[in-house]
Design goal:
The chain is built from 11 helices and 16 strands. By secondary structure, the protein is of the alpha+beta class. It folds into 2 domains: 217 residues, Gcn5-related N-acetyltransferase (GNAT) (Aminopeptidase); 140 residues, Aminopeptidase (3-Layer(aba) Sandwich), CATH 3.40.630.30. The strands form 2 sheets. An 11-stranded mixed beta sheet has the order 3-6-7-9-16-10-15-14-13-12-11. The chain is globular, with a radius of gyration of 22 Å. It starts with a strand and ends in a 9-residue tail after the last helix.
Length: 391
């Protein structure tokens, strides 16, 4: 795609064309941990493509950016897709698309640097550690904008970026956007009761009552990871996923094969919470285990059991994080109801390159108002924190 000073940036139309070890090395260094975030790994991204979940047939055309130095070493990369719709992104631009098309423009195709169907913050410009790491990230950001222009795409979107990337991209002229999620933080707790001890009396009683109610009437919960997860577990969980997906999105994003592939390729990073009642598996929650964070992703149920959703998705996740020394739990997008369960609002970030000034200028004005609204909402929510107020 571009070449300068011995550095080559090119586009790969399948992640399988990139060496897994090279990709993961860039992702790990960009994450600043001993291993990359689960969703940035070659294994996860290839499972999305190989299963037909993120593929041209579903409107996700892989166009991954890779940066090589003069000796052919992969020094940086970015998960990138040409999109013909705005589904599965969780940073909503449908209004932008409708307004632009009413004015006679063509919003699609657009370019998306993101992990498909995964509203989890993490680096998007993945670069090996070294003296040129920041320069390589900037080179990738500029190359992505040029690629969007070459495609005659209306826009380029980097979603759920880190705050550092957000600031860098803003300095390069990208429009900046914020939103919020709810995350739980481990303040060195030794047990769930230790965590409850930091909450107000009313919230402690609420959570204890919800946990008791969820496990009444013979409900049992089993945590599965690694080789304990069998195909029959994925069969059942996929039923739950389809039920939730069809109600929330109208069309579930992931295929059944995707779950088999992550079970095959990265089962040690998977935590499956399965709920049984009277010998039948009635609900389940899928999580991924990171270096310091547990990521809650999907939930589904075939029985209406009060508070079981909270137990399987939020409280079991906290229990697991405490037991395994994890610092955070991220329970997915949206959900102010998580606040009362000890999950606090956290800002998320995205950056947007829009070529046409007729679209760019109104979007920039809108984002200014939106960003103020997001911050005001976060301040208001924190004022209703479930944690005890210090004297």
């Amino acid at each position: 795609m571009s070449k300068s000073s011995g550095i080559v940036v090119r586009v790969e139309n399948a992640i399988s064309a990139v060496d897994p070890g090279e990709w993961d090395a860039c992702a790990a260094d960009a994450s600043g941990t001993a291993r990359p975030q689960p969703f940035l790994t070659h294994a996860f991204l290839s499972a999305l493509e190989d299963s037909g979940s993120a593929a041209p047939e579903t409107g996700w055309h892989p166009a991954h950016l890779v940066l090589e130095s003069g000796n052919g070493t992969l020094d940086a990369c970015a998960p990138c897709y040409v999109k013909t719709h705005s589904r599965g992104e969780y940073v909503f631009d449908h209004g932008w698309a409708e307004a632009y098309e009413r004015a006679g423009g063509a919003y699609y195709p657009k370019l998306q640097v993101a992990v498909p169907f995964t509203p989890v913050t993490g680096p998007r410009l993945l670069a090996r550690a070294g003296p040129r790491a920041e320069d390589n990230r900037i080179t990738l950001a500029r190359a992505a904008a040029r690629f969007a222009s070459q495609l005659d795409a209306s826009s380029l979107h980097l979603t759920f970026v880190t705050k550092t990337e957000w600031e860098t991209l803003g300095a390069l002229g990208y429009l900046q956007r914020t939103d919020q999620q709810f995350h739980w933080h481990n303040n060195g707790y030794t047990s769930f009761d230790d965590f409850l001890g930091e909450l107000s009396s009313r919230k402690r009683k609420l959570i204890r009552r919800e946990r008791r109610s969820a496990l009444e009437n013979g409900v049992e919960i089993r945590l599965l990871t690694g080789s304990d997860i069998l195909e029959r577990h994925w069969d059942r969980f996929f039923e739950f996923y389809l039920d939730t997906g069809s109600r929330k999105w109208g069309m579930p994003y992931l295929t059944r094969e995707f779950f088999s592939l992550i079970g095959e390729r990265m089962s040690a990073q998977v935590l499956l919470v399965m709920c049984r009642q009277h010998g039948n598996t009635v609900a389940g929650a899928l999580n991924f285990i990171g270096a310091d964070t547990l990521y809650g992703r999907y939930w589904g149920a075939r029985a209406d059991i009060p508070f079981l959703h909270f137990e399987a998705c939020y409280y079991q996740a906290i229990d697991f994080a405490i037991a395994h020394g994890l610092c955070h739990v991220e329970a997915g997008a949206q959900g102010p109801h998580k606040l009362a369960r000890g999950y606090l609002p956290e800002t998320t970030y995205s950056a947007h390159y829009i070529a046409d000034p007729c679209l760019r200028e109104p979007v920039a004005r809108y984002l200014g108002f939106e960003q103020k609204s997001v911050e005001e909402a976060r301040t208001l929510l924190l004022s209703h924190s479930p944690f005890r107020k210090e004297p």
